[in-house]
Records
---
Amino acid sequence: RAKASGSAPFQVFDPTLHQTAIQRLQLEIDLRKALYQQELVVHYQPILALTTSKLVGFEALVRWHHPQKGLVSPAVFIPIAEETGLITQIGHWVLKRSCQQLQQWQAEKRFSAPLTMSVNLSARQFTQPDLVEQIDQILAETQLNPRYLKLEITESAIMRNAEATTSVLQELRKRHIQLSIDDFGTGYSSLSYLHSFPVDTLKIDQSFVQQMGENADSLGLVPLIINIAQKMGMTVVAEGVETQTQLDHLKALNCDFGQGFFFCKPLEADKISALLASKS
Ligand code: C2E
Ligand code: MG
Ligand code: MG
Ligand code: MG
């Protein structure tokens, strides 16, 4: 990419940009191999009901154990997967893996009340014409009751192609699959459009949760978001709960559910199994 600098109108070769491009390309090459070399794993983060502190479900979060670089964050590789289209395969695998896992925990009677599994869907996955078929197939293969599956999508993913999305969401709804809006507040932040989409749950982005101050007049937009979402019949999950103070505020605001390091970090399946065993 040409960059204007000093007297020369164009600088044709920027060594820093060049380095970045090469690293990015290398990561893309490695990511293509990651799936069949079994370098991807899914971690699970508990989601709790705030009034009872009871576990209600998990969010599935993909992890990449790169052979040289170690753990690569999904914040880094999901955007690459999106751009290259690799997200369709990765997303399919994550969905299948996490449905299998929940079904296994249910079968082992690891918990009395049924728990949900929330899985992130990217914008690009949403534009696949056979997305609903893929989900049907995964549910059939894993024997998971669709009621326990919850799909998380962002506002921008919905708005990118609102019409196509609406029909997909309606198909999912027919199957009793639940839907969450992820990272609410970081995108269009328009509660009015939510009326036209069949959404069960709104997840308040962690930036809002973490900005809540020590006293009641510094709660920012959190009270408003909770109030309107609940009036529209949605339940609310607060993301990124890290402190007792944040938890206290959220409880006082009647927020339904919470997720965050204060309760539990995302953990590999075995650790969750152990946790479930110790509590039953
Ligand atoms: P997200 O869906 O909003 O997931 C929540 C993120 O917040 C996770 O980051 C989680 O580890 C982190 N988190 C949870 N509790 C706390 C807390 O108390 N404090 C802080 N600071 N962070 C907390 P993670 O796992 O790094 O994932 C980042 C993003 O990558 C996700 O954000 C999601 O957008 C995307 N992602 C992760 N797995 C998948 C996947 O399987 N498919 C797709 N399409 N995207 C994924
Ligand atoms: Mg999410
Ligand atoms: Mg989120
Ligand atoms: Mg987020």
---
Amino acid sequence: KNNSVGTGMSHKPIDFNDIGGQTPAKQEIQEALEFMRKSDRFKAMGIRPLKGILLTGPPGTGKTLLAKAAATYTDSVFITASGSEFIEMYAGVGAQRVRSLFESAKKQAKKFKKNSAVIFIDEIEVLGGKRGSHSSHLEYDQTLNQLLVEMDGMKTDPELQILVMGATNRADLIDAALLRPGRFDRIVNVDLPDVTSRLQILTIHTANKPLGEDVRLSMIAKETFSFSGAQLESVCNEAAIYAMREEASFILSRHFKEAIDKVIMGEKAEKKPTN
Ligand code: ATP
């Protein structure tokens, strides 16, 4: 069963158990999602629906995964977009793209016979940045205004509930208008994993891999201070590649050591100035 549409097509639906660590984030999000799962009761109490959740934190910490899990948890269609897709040189194009995004959520929900949709917008600071702060600010302003219009208009359709989840690693750049009640009401921090969370993430990403007897994931978790979930996934994958190159049947401790070095070196190479 695949409930994903848009650019982030995934084959197996992601659920909260596929995400290591992030316990407070998962709890906050699940709590917030109750309004979609029990919408009748919330309506009966006169509680206004939650429209937006903003996920903030460094790259590769699981923000996209959390949004996908939210869609699975609420039996919603999942639509993804990135803030940079909305920025065009021509006036009005960005605003038009925002409209199409919400229209496609409605279409997809209808097609898959779902009564809710999660719209995930990665790098939302690009489109929801402080107004007037960009060089071609008119275009940005129109795009952000259109997002606000769409979010304000979401309440009326009884057939379809839409939740917008935005992700950013620059929460400081977000326009205050997006953070007002009825827009991104909840802000959820998605931080780098601590040692316990790193162990959980390593366990998830080695579940389908043959590990040698000398491998202690708890040691690897200790040695990967400040690694993100995405980097830990990369460590597991690279370690398997090193093992395969040696035609080993199991991934050994030294393969993980090499993989950790490679991921650290890769990061350094990326950060090196190019001039
Ligand atoms: P970005 O800000 O760069 O878009 P992100 O926070 O959205 O990053 P994801 O796209 O969710 O990060 O994570 C990238 C990949 O890293 C995931 O597909 C997964 O393989 C791995 N990963 C990241 N965080 C976790 C986690 N908490 N548990 C398990 N895997 C994780």
